[in-house]
Structure formats: C-alpha cells, structure tokens
Amino acid sequence: MAELDIQISIEEGDWPSEGELQALAERVLEAAATFLKKNEKQPFPTTATELSLVFTDDESIRTINAEWRKKDKATNVLSFPAFPIIPGKMPGPMLGDIIIARETVEREARELEKPFEDHLTHLMVHGFLHLFGYDHMNSDEAEIMEGLETRILAVLGLSDPYEGQDLKMEP
User: Fold this and answer.
1) Which CATH number is 4-155 given?
2) What is the pLDDT of residues 96-132, one digit of tens each?
3) CB neighbours of residue 165 within 10 Å
4) Binding site: what residues are annotated?
5) At what angle do helices 18-39 and 139-155 cross, to 10 degrees?
6) I need a surface site. Which of 90, 99, 102, 150 has the fewest CB within 10 A?
7) Closest CA to 11 of 94, 100, 87
8) Beta pairing, strands 4-10 & 77-81
9) Which residues are CB-contacts of 39 (< 8 A; sequence separation ≥ 6)?
10) Which pTM was predicted?
11) Which residues are annotated as a binding site for Zn(2+)?
C-alpha cells in the first residue's frame, strides 16, 4: 500500500503535543487505510498519499462550518476532500483536509463517558472515510459508513460508537 503522508497542524486549542497527535494519527489512519484496501478493495495511488489534519478550537471550526456549510455552529469534525471521489474509486495523491475541534471532542467524550483519545480516534476515522467519498446524508449511506467506522475501530481495539443508537445523520 502507498504510504500516508500525514501533515499535522495545531492551530488553536489545548491539544496534546504535535508528536503525540502525529503518532496517534499515523496509527489510526494507517489502520483505516489498510482496512479499506484489504476489506473494501479500495485502490490507492502508488506514490505517497497526502492528507492534512488540522487541530483547532470551537470558535475556528464554527467559522469554517458557517462559511462552507452555512451552519453557524461548532462541530466535532469537518472533512474537505481535495477532489470529488466515489467510494471504491482511486483517490488522487492528495486526499484532503480533516479539521477537528478540541472543545467539542472533549465535551462529547465526557457525555459519552469515553476516553478523549478514543473519541478523537473515532473522529479521525470518520473524517478519513469522508475523504474517500463515504457519507451519511441518508440512512443507507449512514449504515455503510457507520459499519466501516465500527469495523475499523474494532481493529484498533475500540467498541462500537453507535451501539444502541439510531443512525446519526446531520445534513
């Protein structure tokens, strides 16, 4: 499989060190990429595949969410694929950007009674799948995407984040 070139940027918020985030991202996203290639027959470019992970705060992600999605509120993760892609098709050498907000992740982890790192791991996987064209705009898409998330998280030793919940969809 092509190597993932993960660029980390801490813009705002009280995040762990860049080194800790880099190590976590490499472990999580390499596992997700390996899973997609092996189980979903996802093709990958033969050269390094690049993506960026931006760690920020609620204020910054709220501004981005308002500008790009017309939703004037903070959210946990936003993904911006570099190019339109259909699940299972070859991505370009640049996958895109994943942006994650500290306060929202922390609050949700507390509400879910999960360790912060486990919830952050889930959101990294969620954002990564969006870069490959997966979505959750309707129940069929949500079932596929959440199934993939659950199986990837199981590979990482984490429990099903959707267990006992209806499919979550936010347009």
Assistant:
1) 3.40.390.30
2) 999 999 999 999 999 999 999 999 999 999 999 999 9
3) 9
4) 126, 130, 136
5) 110
6) 90
7) 100
8) unpaired
9) 151
10) 0.93
11) 126, 130, 136
